[in-house]
Amino acid sequence: MTGNLVFLGLSIAQLHDPTLHADRSITALCLFWLGSFVTGQIGHRVGPKRRWWLLLTSLIQCLLIFISSILLYTSTVSTEDISNLGLVVPLAFAFGSQAAAGRPLGVAPITTVVVTSAMVDLWADKKLFAPLAGNPGRNQRVAFILVFFLGGIVGGLALVHVNAAGRTIQ
């Protein structure tokens, strides 16, 4: 999801690249966040380490991936049409759910998914809706994600309006 956040920033900066689609990034991010939110919040209530919960979330994730596979196999969706959201929806939700289900197990996150981990921790936060002063960790995660996103916008604007990449090379 780190890439989707950067791609969204570049799209907003109007970097004219045919591979950048804001709708795909927004859809992927929102469904990932929804998967993290649903799995994380329900997990807090039922017990995130309970076997039946882990089994249920794993089965749902497998089902969503299986549905995506069927869509590809039957050519209902195509990987060549990059504006197609048919695969983005089930996969992003499944990946968000998987990340939120795995966090309470204490598996160390891989350092390349720092922003994604911050997103999962944000949406699965037990005190997500606490008052502003009541959850400094949540506030730090929101600020971190927003700064990263704004960096994508600033970088895209620099490429579009200043041609920073061309000037750096010369």
Topology overview:
Blueprint: H1 2-12, H2 22-46, H3 51-73, H4 88-102, H5 114-123, H6 136-162, H7 164-169
Helix pairs in contact: 1-2, 1-6, 2-4, 2-5, 3-4, 5-6
Give structural notes.
The protein has 7 helices and no strands. It has helices at 2-12, 22-46, 51-73, 88-102, 114-123, 136-162, 164-169. It is mostly helical.
Descriptors for this entry?
single chain; 170 residues; mainly alpha; 7 helices; 0% strand; disordered C terminus
Poorly predicted runs are 164-170
The count of DSSP E runs of length 2 or more, i.e. the number of strands, is 0
Q: Can you summarize the main beta sheet? A: none
The percent of residues in helical segments reads 55-70%
- The ordered H/E elements are HHHHHHH
Distance between the termini: 33 Å
Q: Count of DSSP helices?
A: 7
Beta percentage is under 5%
Oligomer: single chain
Indicate the structural class: mainly alpha
What integer value in Å does the Rg equal? 18 Å
Q: Give average pLDDT, whole number.
A: 84
Shape type: flat
Structure summary:
The chain is built from 7 helices and no strands. With 170 residues, it is mainly alpha-helical.
